[in-house]
Amino acid sequence: MESLHLLISLAWRNLWRNRRRTLVILFAIVLGVWAMIFTAAFMRGMSLQIIDDTIDNLTGHIQIHTPGYLDDPVVEHAFQVDDSLHTALQNDAIKQLSMRVRVPAVVASERDSYGLVLIGIDPQAEAGVSFIANSIVQGKYLSAADDPGVIIGKKLAEQLETRLGKRVVVMSQNLDNDIADRGFRIVGIFDTQMEALETGYIFMGRTTAQQLLDIDHRVSEIAIKLKHGDVVDTVLQQLKQQQPELDIQAWHELQPMSKVMVEMYEDFHLIWHLIVFIAMGFGIINTLLMAVFERTREFGLFQALGLKPTFIMGQVWIEAIMLLILGTALGNLVSWLSVLATGEGIDVSAFAQGMEMANLSNIIPFVIIKGDLILANSVVIILGLLTSLYPAWRASSMVPADALTRI
After folding, report:
1. What secondary structure does DSSP assign to 127-183, as a single string?
2. Parallel, antiparallel or unpaired: strands 62-65 and 94-108
3. Under a CB-based contact definition with an 8 Å cutoff, are residues 304 and 404 in contact?
4. What angle do CA 58, 61, 64 make, to 5 degrees?
5. Distance from CA of residue 142 to its chain's centroid?
6. Does residue 205 sit in helix, strand or coil?
7. What residues contact residue 344 under an 8 Å CB cut-off, 6+ apart?
8. Alpha helices in 206-255, H assignment, sequence order
9. I want to staple 113 with a disulfide (CB 3.0 to 4.6 A). Which of 55, 108, 259, 318 is the partner?
10. In this model, does residue 269 exceed pLDDT 80?
């Protein structure tokens, strides 16, 4: 115990005999920790944002359709929600679900017309599944499933040269393959960070849409939002077993591009860790070797006085451990302060079109999770301990006579 106390005391003093060298190593460790945690927070923020936006932008965690609907989303593929499906949807993992009518349509104003997707919703159920209820910037949200009004996007209102309170004509195809059209008053206008959402959809009450298309109580899809995103596969398999005749898919199957983007960010995250790992490894081992060579006579004197090589090796290794502990602590502090300084995230609205193509919003948040912290700190500490073994071995393997005569 006394020898360990002596080793720690000597190691701490030796660290600050050459403050410049110690500060260089500390800077390298802090920079490495910061680079891994800060980059991980950025990548994690982008990945989680893609997933959250994909789920909120009408996809949900899971969707249910009839076979063939996704290839040909016409009114003929609407289905009746029977008792067996109602029972299957009584799952404790489901937070909220929305039964929708969703068909291609054309909306026309006094000035112009535009092709888009008509979605009939139950406003109360939809509020817990998608973005619509929280995106109204003018007017109001739909009050009920039989609300006679419609909601359109801000960009679509500009293209149609219309505004809140004006009437538009919505046209689609009913079950008899006839044109179903009706005039509706605009009761709300929504605004999102993605222009495609504002121009791609028009929303009305589900009962109103069913009456327009003459499909009774049938729906086109059921969007499901779960309490926890990590149980998607479990719930998906349960629903498929209970309703094998329906087409049931998870968000990553419905939006494969989003899944590819998330996987790409995860791969980049690992590659970046590898780059930092290699750079830090060379930096730490070179700096520690310099420290060992500068103290050659000192180590030779220790051995001449009878200290065992293991004592010298332990001293160098404890110096490295102290540097690693101090460096990782400072690196975590700097990383936390850097993420805190970003606030809600980085504004990339100058690249709005490119970000939209990548399924990203204009604000990229930074998200630190426990797993990324553990990974970054483990990489630095394990790397530091491994790279310090060689300099420690070199110090302990010096021949006293040669070390004492070296200038």
Report:
1. TTTSSGGG-EEEE----STT-SEEEEEHHHHHHHT--TT-EEEEEEE-TTS-EEEEE
2. unpaired
3. yes
4. 75
5. 31
6. strand
7. 363, 365
8. 206-213, 232-242, 251-254
9. 108
10. no
The token duo for 273 is: 């860790």
Residue 120, classed as helix, strand or coil, is strand
Evaluate whether 273 touches 36 at the Cβ level (below 8 Å).
yes
Give the pLDDT confidence of 19-37 residue by residue, as tens digits: 777 788 788 888 888 888 8
Handedness of CA 264, 234, 68, 197 (dihedral sign): negative
Please name the amino acid found at residue 199.
T
Indicate the domain borders of the chain: 2-54+259-405, 67-245
Closest among 163, 153, 145 to 204, alpha carbons compared: 145
pLDDT at 153 over 90: yes
Place of tokens 């101090």: 326
Query: Rounded to an integer, what is the distance from CA 242 to the centroid of its chain?
Result: 31
DSSP 8-state secondary structure symbol assigned to residue 57: I
Report how far residue 204's alpha carbon sits from residue 316's, in angstroms, rounded to the nearest whole number: 72
DSSP class of residue 295 equals: T
pTM of the model: 0.76
Instruction: Write the CB contacts of 70 (distance below 8 Å, at least 6 apart in sequence).
Output: 247, 249, 254
Lowest-pLDDT range, 10-14, 30-34, 219-223, 227-231? 10-14
Rounded Cα distance, 90 and 226, in Å:
12
Residue of 284, 374, 392 lying closest to 22 (CA atoms) = 284
Contact 313, 396 (CB under 8 A): yes
Structure tokens at 154: 């801000």
